[in-house]
Amino acid sequence: MAKSTFADQTNQGRLFDMLPDCHPSREQPQEQRQFVWPDRNKLFFGACTLQSYLKDCGQKKVLQLSDSLDDLDWKVFESKYSGPGRPPYAPRLMAGLIMYGLLKGVNALRALEVMSRVDLGCMWICAGIQPDHSNIGRFIIRHQEEFEGPFFEQVARLALEATRSGVADVAGDGTVIQAAASRYRTVKRPVVKY
After folding, report:
1. Which pLDDT score is estimated for 138?
2. Do 121 and 59 touch, CB atoms closer than 8 A?
3. What pTM did the predictor assign?
4. Where in the chain are the domains?
5. 181, exposed or middle or buried, with CB in 10 Å at 0-12, 13-18, 19+?
6. Which three-class secondary structure string do you get for the chain?
7. Separation CA 12–CA 10 (nearest Å)
8. Would you give the end-to-end CA distance of the chain in angstroms?
């Protein structure tokens, strides 16, 4: 018969006691997530900085929009990112791209991607990042609740302050009404002579 030995009689059982703790304790503070946020002051158009070029061209609204976006609270967006891996684009830059696109009448993801590469105002607001359309789409899906909730209220307050408007001066109605002015009705309706 074969001789058998048990683990408790050898030193093998102590090997597991000497291993370092692989899981961080819950009491240790988590490191803050790093984001891709290039320095937009290093963006140049020709020999001058992009900021001075935009000022010279009379694009001060782009600079004001960028400053206004910097004043908003982005912690709700940033809290949705965690874990290891490549740093994502900063939520302020991605939201800035989307909002600037909406102000310009661009709402298609691929058109936003192109705009981030060719529009100088967009480059300033986005600090030169050039996300592809799939990254933009994932950002919108991930933060859909934030766009509809308190963040929307922040942006609305910011717009009211910037335009010096009151809540009575700004209104929007999303009522959908079917139009009765079809070209087929106007052609087929008989002419009444008086």
Report:
1. 92
2. yes
3. 0.65
4. 36-168
5. exposed
6. CCCCCCHHHCCHHHHCCCCCCCCCCCCCCCCCCCCECCCHHHCEECCEEHHHHHHHCCCHHHHHHHHHHHHCCCHHHHCCCCCCCCCCECHHHHHHHHHHHHHCCCCCHHHHHHHHHHCHHHHHHCCCCCCCHHHHHHHHHHCHHHHHCHHHHHHHHHHHHHHCCCCCCCCCCCCCCCCCCCHHHHHHCCCCCC
7. 6
8. 121
What digits encode the pLDDT tens for the residues 87-144?
A: 889 999 999 999 899 888 898 999 999 999 999 999 999 999 999 999 999 999 998 8
Candidates 78, 103, 99; CA nearest to 88 is 78
**pLDDT mean across residues, the chain:** 78
pLDDT exceeds 50 at position 27: no
State the Cα–Cα distance between residues 122 and 70, nearest whole angstrom. 15
Q: What is the mean pLDDT of residues 43-72?
A: 88
